[in-house]
């Protein structure tokens, strides 16, 4: 075959080969675009569903703090009023007054449903803060029921036949009238950030779960950071190369890949059933998450120690430091930023983890805000899981909003880690 | 005295001993530090550690055994006719006594015997708390004092303190071993108890799974079937779908990023893709259940397919999205490890980029890529929240991705969430499933890590 002939054969195939090249390259672009598309889709779904939850419909009523209802004995004892006063009766009376034409029993009942079941508690708190309100009539913004809220936010369509609609014609009529009188308005949803869980969507909030997450993470951080750093120091600086050290390393690498739910089984069998620790407590959650995040922290800390150049160690030893002094006075401070970065990333992982916490009972329905590491509590991701299971439409937006809060925390933590790395990273 | 106060007190005592130890070392040296073997602060640490550690050990042991000892004492103090009931009733009674003593909710109406037992319990607990505080503080003082007395110019305090610190470092690193051991033992023991009720072959090869047990002996109903094959098949089906999404997208993304993309594109796209890996799985689960599953169902009904609202397809697709960054970063690593010389050789022979990639780089990186894929599979198998929220509960033995299937992790969660008695086969089954999950992922990881390491060594 002459030179010319082979060149011709190559040329003949060139167009085809370049087409293949372009196609292949396009597949790559396509793959990246697809994953970016998924990311965008995920965020738009969550934000699109969730941003409305930061506003909550409130209803303005002329409330009369009627002594006959709140303090029938007339003693004026605040503790007694707070316990036995019929604050819901006050709300109902105000609603009756606003709509005097509603007289039928069934209609009255749906009228009472305009305000949230928790509206009475809001009035109670108001009265407790200012006892002089007793007997007076004031205009108060109260939380509206979640279905009114959904209607206001357009999640319930008024063109749907009445039978298929959660909010009936009569209620819509009332809502329109309240709107015309400027007595219905969407305000910033403080309940969402200050309340614990609740069966009623409009009274539920993430504060309880956030506090639970905080306690759990504190336990995790206090245990996993010192232990992880100590383990890394031992393995990097002191461990002799022998079978035992190898065995430790194999174990760490394997633990990093054990499914998180298995750690939950460990927590259930060892901490709860064997040691008799309380169920649902942040302490146990923190212990389980410690075991789970330890490999991450150990691996990151070892990398940080490795990046400290040997000349530092030699210089320290050369001027007479003991090995322990060399590590703690010279190597550790230089490796600290890297270790902290690893710890923050580990904490971010722990913050988003829910499967092992389901196993140790942190899925209970808990209304109270936990006050310590022994109190039953739940955490943010588990709260999301619990709300995602609730059938009410109002919980969908709450779930999405809770996810937005969780993601915001994660973004802040990761940004902190990146900043720390940028700020203190040294190139030797 | 609550434990936290006691710990703070102990810390206070030991910091005082740090000060005294340091002062004494200076005193014995007559102010000339060079006469001392170690720096003065080491003598301080020495005294403080001797004060703190024994007391903490006592505290830990005491807290571990306190409730058992007190309970035994209280039960022995009960009248004989009350005490001679079966274990379950006795356990309930002890619980009630404890709740009475601490002011909690009690199941039965308290009778006088219980009342006395409760006050007995409370007395014992008060005594124990007070005794603990005294014992711990005395031990702390004695330990600190003895150490303080030992301080002399020739005393090798630094070496002793450093060996204690080294002991702490070593025990911290062995925690990984104990964790693995804890996992293996806890899961294995419960699984063995399960296999006393249900034979291993029935569990591993049985074709039907319905863990509902009759609660009372006279109850009509299913006696429970514990054949795990439908769960294994369901898990594999969902993992397979996930890999069908993640493997091509992740691999192609990695190839593009490492071979084609400019430095700037790479610097932007890579972190953005990593975001997918940082999103909590519960968010993916919500996304699957809220968006993807209804979308698939509606599309299916439009083209006349009957798609279940908890289809394996929805869970698998979303799980695939979650694994994309995992696959792409592992593949990126191994592709970058292929020596540049191999690329240059291929280009020199006139190959186009895609030909180089397909005929040189991929074959060279194949072991590493396979290892990465195995790790991704093990991720998919162990993933819990997505399937709990988006996959079904009923154990269908099917390979149809449009139907609802259940997985091993879903069953573990459903069996263990809620109040369960700890020794019914239903609860124990979760541990048997956990054991099979642990063993499977362990084998996958070991094989994958081995393959990847072999591959790395080849080019280093």
Strand order of the largest sheet of chain B: 1-2
In N-to-C order, the SSE pattern of chain A is: HEHHHHHEHHEHHHHHHHHHH
First-to-last CA distance of chain A: 58 Å
Number of strands of chain A: 3
From the helix content, strand content and strand pairing of chain B, which structural class follows?
A: mainly alpha
Overall domain count of chain B: 2
Whole-number count of domains of chain A: 3
Number of strands of chain B: 2
| Poorly predicted ranges of chain B | none
Summarize the largest interface: chains and residue counts. Answer: A-B, 86 and 88 residues
The SSE order of chain B reads HHHHHHHEEHHHHHHHHH
Number of DSSP helical runs of chain A: 18
Q: What is the CATH class name of the largest domain in chain B?
A: Mainly Alpha
Could you name the CATH homologous superfamily of the largest domain in chain B? MetI-like
The average pLDDT value of chain B, as a whole number, equals: 86
Strand order within the widest beta sheet of chain A:
2-1-3
Radius of gyration of chain A: 31 Å
Cα(first) to Cα(last) distance of chain B is 61 Å
DSSP strand content of chain A: 5-15%
Uncertain segments of chain A of ≥5 residues (pLDDT<50)?
Answer: none
Indicate the overall shape of chain A: extended
